[in-house]
From TrEMBL:
InterPro entries listed in its UniProt record: Glutathione_S-Trfase, Glutathione_S-Trfase_N, Omega/Tau-like, Thioredoxin-like_sf
Protein name per Swiss-Prot or TrEMBL: Glutathione S-transferase
GO CC aspect terms: cytosol
Annotated Pfam families: GST_N
Native source organism of the sequence: Tagetes erecta
Family membership: Belongs to the GST superfamily.
Entry EC number(s): 2.5.1.18
Coiled-coil positions: none
A GO molecular-function descriptor: glutathione transferase activity
Record's subcellular location: Cytoplasm, Cytosol
Stored SUPFAM superfamilies: Thioredoxin-like
Function recorded in the entry: Is involved in the conjugation of reduced glutathione to a wide number of exogenous and endogenous hydrophobic electrophiles.
Start and end residues of each GST N-terminal domain: 5-85
């Protein structure tokens, strides 16, 4: 009998934000189920799990609440598996620099 996958990711092919999460999940060797979202015809699952922004990615883990925003999801993945390919540096000051760079790049992508 197959093992049930605990993580599910709602994303969109071509979304840099969803791809960021997909890359991190693969890097950390976390198995997940992927669901493609049509952003022109948003699913009930997307509208229910991310009612404010109505965008991807959305990560579902076990019975917890849905997680949105790719950078927050990356931090969560680092917290649940800190020893497997850490995504952020160990020291807080270095992590701040990484967050500043990530937010800057996100804002640049969002304005394109």
């Amino acid at each position: 009998m197959g093992q049930k996958c605990e993580m599910k990711l709602l994303g969109k092919t071509g979304s840099v934000f969803a791809n960021r999460v997909r890359f991190a999940l693969k890097l950390k060797c976390i198995e997940y189920e992927y669901f493609e979202e049509d952003l022109d015809n948003k699913s009930e699952l997307l509208l229910k799990s991310n009612p404010v922004f109505q965008n991807v990615p959305v990560l579902f883990h076990a019975d917890g609440p849905p997680m949105i925003e790719s950078l927050a999801i990356l931090e969560y993945l680092d917290e649940i598996q800190p020893d497997i390919h850490p995504l952020l540096p160990l020291y807080p000051a270095d992590r701040v620099q990484c967050r500043i760079l990530a937010y800057t790049l996100d804002n640049m992508v969002a304005t394109l």
